[in-house]
Amino acid sequence: ACAKEHDGKTIATTGYLRAPFEALCRPGPGAGSRTCSFDLRDKPEGEARLSLNIELGAGANRVDEAKLKARQGAAAVAASDGKFLAEKAQIRVTGALHAVPNALKPEETICWLDVAKIERR
Question: What one-character-per-residue DSSP string does 85-110 give?
């Protein structure tokens, strides 16, 4: 998924959801929005394959602020059915992919997905 030619395109990919950093959230692209970072991995204990930005808020496809503050990791994320996921849950995510060259290592590409939809697998 992490290829320069996919930059700006909407893609869907599957993997395991992990919360590597507790409460790593920052201002999002929309006015007043905030997004939180999660990892998507090929295996539950594998290396991060793609960074996911999931919007903070209430309801489906969002990160619940109270659960995040309680350090519940991936369990703070609600799937498209509105129910919360488990740590290391297998999911399918759909969203806009961003791929930019790494300024420090030009041969590497830095990728992240702005998540629009999260489905259980």
Answer: PPTT-EEEEEEEEEEEE-SS-TT-EE
